[in-house]
Amino acid sequence: MEYIILIVVLAVLIVGIGGTMLLRPGRGRLGRGRGGGDVGQGTGTGTIERGTTTDGGTQAGGSASGATTTTVPPPAPPASPAPSAPSAPPKPVIEKPPPSAGRMVRLRARLARSQSGFGSALLNLLSRDRLDDDTWDEIEEVLITADVGVTPARQIVEDLKTRVKVEGTQTPDEVREMLRTELLAQVDTGASRALRTQRHEGRPAVILVVGVNGTGKTTTCGKLARSLIGDGDSVLLGAADTFRAAAADQLQTWGERVGAEVVRSDTEGADPASVAFEAVSKGIEAEVDVVLIDTAGRLHTKTGLMDELGKVKRVVEKRTAVDEVLLVLDATTGQNGLRQARVFAEVVDVSGIVLTKLDGTAKGGIVIAVQRELGVPVKLVGLGEGPDDLAPFEPATFVDAILGD
Ligand code: GDP
User: Fold this and answer.
1) Which of 161, 179, 191, 358 is buried most, with the most CB atoms less than 10 Å from its CB?
2) HSE value, Cβ hemisphere, 13 Å, CA-based, for 135
3) Residue range 200-206: average pLDDT?
4) Is 356 in the pocket of ligand 1 (CB under 6 A)?
5) Please, what sign has the CA dihedral across residues 374, 218, 393, 289?
6) Which of 385, 389, 390, 393 is the best mutation target for the ligand 1 pocket, counting ligand atoms within 8 Å of the beta carbon and taking the most?
7) 360 lines ligand 1 (CB under 6 A)
8) Is the shortest distance between the CB of 217 and ligand 1 below 6 Å?
9) What is the DSSP code (8-state) at residue 229?
10) Which residues, including other chains, have CB under 8 Å from residue 286's CB and lie 6 or more apart?
11) pLDDT tens across 75-99, in order?
C-alpha cells in the first residue's frame, strides 16, 4: 500500500513537472511571438532608420563626390546616441553658382558707373557746334586720361575727324553712333575671347593664372572656378602661390564653397612647380574638366620670375599641355600695370588677359591699351569683390557702358 501511495505521489510530481515543462515553450512561443513582433517592429524601425540612413548616405555621398550637388542638407541625426556625433565636423554647404552667360550685361551698371565720366565727356565734346583744333585736342586728352594710350587715342581722333569732315554736322544720336563705332573698332580686335576649357586627349584643360600679387589673381582663380562649375564643368584648383601663406587658404575656401578639390602644400615657400605638377596629376586621375593653377606673382627680378613660371609650365607639360595662360591685371594701376604686363608677356606666352577691378576705375581705356600692347585679348573682367563678379568680356556691352547707353 505504501508503495502504491509512493507511486501515486511520484506520478503526481511527474505530471506537475511535465506540465510546467509544457507550459514553458508555450510562453516561449508567446515570447517569440512578441519577440517576432519586436523584430517586426524592429525591422520596421530598422527599415525606416536604414531608409533614413541610406538617404542620408546617398546625400552625403553625392556631396562628397559630385561638385554639381546643389545643397547638402545637414546630416540626418543618428538613431542611437553616437559618441562620435559631436566630433564630426559639419559638412560644408556646396553652392550651385550661376552660369557665366550674360554676366557682363548684368554687371553693366557697375561699368557704366565707373566709365560714365569718360564716355559722357567724349560725347559732350563731339556734340559741340564747332569742332575746332582745341576741341579735338581735348578729345584726345580725355582718351589719354582714360588710359586708352597715346597711339590709339590719336588714331581714334583722326578717324573721327575724317568722318565728321565727310558726313558733316550730325545729330546727337549720329555722334554717339560714330563714337561707338570708333571705340568698338579699337576694343574688338577680332581675336577669339573663348577660354579653352575642353578636355582633350582624355586629359583636363589646364589654365595657369599669372600676375603680380595684389592684382586679384587668387580671387580670380576662385571666381573662375565657380563660374566654370556654374557652366557644368568639374574643376580642380592648384595652389601654386606658395609664397603667400594666405593664398592657399583663400583658394581652399573658394574650393570648399563650390565642391572643387584643392591641391596645396602646407609648407610655406614650397616649390610651386611641384604643387602644380601634383595638381595636374590629381586632375588627370580624377578626370576633371579643368585644372586651374594659381601661381606666385613676385616681381623680384625678371630672371627669377622667368625661372619660376618657366619651371611651373615645363613641369606641368610633362603631364599635359597648358591650354591657357591668363594674365591678371588690376585696371586701376594704369601705366604701371602695363609695365608689369610687358614683363609677364616676355616670360610666358600669355593667351588672355583678366582685367580686374574694372568696377573701381573710370579709366576703362586700359582695355584698348593692354590688348594693343600685348596683342592678346581681354577674356574676362572683374567687376566687384562678390563671388560672381567675374564676367566674360563682351566688347559691345563694354562700349555701350562707356557711352552710358
Ligand atoms: P592676389 O594677391 O593677386 O592673389 O590678390 P587677391 O586675389 O588676394 O585680391 C586682392 C584684393 O583685390 C582682394 O581684396 C579682392 O577682393 C580684390 N579684388 C579682386 N578682384 C576684384 C574686382 O574685380 N573688383 C574689386 N573691386 N576688387 C577686386
Assistant:
1) 358
2) 15
3) 96
4) yes
5) positive
6) 385
7) yes
8) yes
9) H
10) 234, 236, 261
11) 334 444 455 556 676 766 788 889 8
Ligand 1 atom with the shortest distance to the CA of 294: 4
Phi, psi of 51 (to 5 degrees): -60, -45
Contact 400, 180 (CB under 8 A): yes
Residue 266 banded pLDDT, cuts 50, 70, 90: confident
Q: Which residue has the least CA distance to atom 22 on ligand 1? A: 357
pLDDT at residue 370 is higher than 80: yes
Using DSSP bridges, classify how beta strands 390-392 and 352-356 pair: parallel, antiparallel or unpaired. Answer: unpaired
C-beta of 357 in contact with ligand 1 (< 6 A): yes
Backbone angles phi and psi of 325, in degrees to 5: -120, 110
pTM across the whole model: 0.78
Pocket test for ligand 1, best of 219, 242, 356, 381 (most atoms within 8 A of CB): 219
CA of 65 to the centre of ligand 1 (A): 30
205-249 pLDDT, tens per residue? 999 999 998 999 999 999 999 999 999 999 999 999 998 889 999
Q: Which of 47-56, 161-170, 396-405 has the lowest mean pLDDT?
A: 47-56
Ligand 1 centroid to 188 CA: how many Å?
26
Where is 159: in which H helix or E strand? helix 150-167
Q: For ligand 1, atom 17, name the residue with the nearest CA.
A: 216
- Residue 130 pLDDT: 85
CA distance 376 to 370: 8
* Closest of 229, 232, 237, 231 to residue 207, by C-alpha: 237
